[in-house]
Write a structure and sequence with these properties.
Two copies of one chain form a homodimer. The first copy, chain A, is mostly helical. Helix content of chain A is 63%, strand content 10%. The structure holds a DNA duplex.
DNA sequence: TCAGGCAGTGCAATTTTCTGCATAGCGGCC
DNA sequence: GGCCGCTATGCAGAAAATTGCACTGCCTGA
């Protein structure tokens, strides 16, 4: 639903190619909206057809040429208007939780392992986020307005990660007791 | 991907009709997997075709008859096996964060309002969860194994809500400054 | 020199999800 | 007795997302 807007948002500061977008998604916006490159390419076409993006081909030495996309004035305006649209609440899908509803003395061990995996993923992300924060958002109040918004999004991700880590700890403690008692 | 499993999970303890499931989803499992009744009905058919659910029609006085679904032995086994399948990491979509990437002195006021709305939704949910927790999960260690898993899922939702509330506070403080400075 | 790999773009088929509507029974209203 | 609204189930079409593959061009290494 909001993927086209997420793409345009990624293009606010810099023009990018499809691949660049796909990669940038994984690092930053992808926290809030995951997308495969196929999806991105398709939406790039649609957005260009609408006149919200322009495209130009750029030759690269030693590599196939890229198609660089940039926001048009119309695109910027459409994006600005979209911000006022109503957000609906999030799906928030997590099948690990469904699995927990199926906890048994048989599958405890497996679930402990799954939580451990998730904990490690979360730690890795957190490490990255904190690095970004220190590098670019050390004094958020002094940043330009738009960057302060980005900071808030980053902060949400960090807090979320920290909280999730704590939950993993507690879950593993409880599951360890279940495992021992089984 | 996991909706069929979520449906089966909801049927572990009690047999239910499509409507009951849809409602129960909103209250409990829906925290982790949202589904409309249309989706649920369709998957119920598929699951019944596979032999994982059985169906029986029950007449109701003053209402149209219901079709009650229940897990078969094959269904229980399929569900138990699914727990061991690999979970992939979550999409985690949130267009409010995308909007924050577009923060400007023009739309601050709107974004403050959106965050306020979200804060209220979160508070309402939290209130409900805490009520459930107090009523049914006051002493988690004494519960049967499966219920302890449900408790952990509930705990995740509560922690998440609390954390999100704090973030809303902080975001609103920062945005208020932006608004004042504009 | 040619086989393999990678970067970059893209198509096609399928599945999942959302939106809007259809139907059928019953109760209450006035 | 006709209209409205509620419950319960369901269909159909469109949009969004996933999966798997295809093509090009250039570089590297054997």
């Amino acid at each position: 639903m909001a993927l086209p807007q997420a793409i345009m948002t990624a293009l606010i500061d810099d023009d990018m190619s499809g691949i660049d977008l796909a990669r940038s998604f994984e690092a930053s916006l992808g926290l809030y909206w995951r997308a495969s490159h196929q999806q991105i390419y398709q939406d790039l076409h649609k957005l260009a057809d609408k006149g919200w993006l322009n495209r130009r081909e750029v030759a690269q030495s030693g590599k196939p040429p890229k198609i660089i996309y940039g926001l048009t004035a119309a695109g910027r305006q459409a994006l600005a208007e979209w911000v006022y649209a109503q957000s609906k609440l999030q799906p928030a899908k997590d099948d690990l939780m469904i699995k927990l509803y199926n906890l048994s003395s048989e599958n405890v061990t497996h679930l402990i392992a799954e939580i451990e995996a998730r904990r490690e993923q979360t730690m890795q992300k957190l490490y990255l986020f904190e690095k970004i924060r220190r590098a670019h958002y050390f004094e958020p109040h002094t940043l330009p307005v738009r960057r302060q918004g980005v900071y808030l999004a980053l902060l949400a991700a960090i807090r979320d990660g920290e909280q999730h880590l704590q939950w993993c700890d507690e879950a593993q403690r409880l599951l360890a007791r279940v495992e021992a008692g089984a």
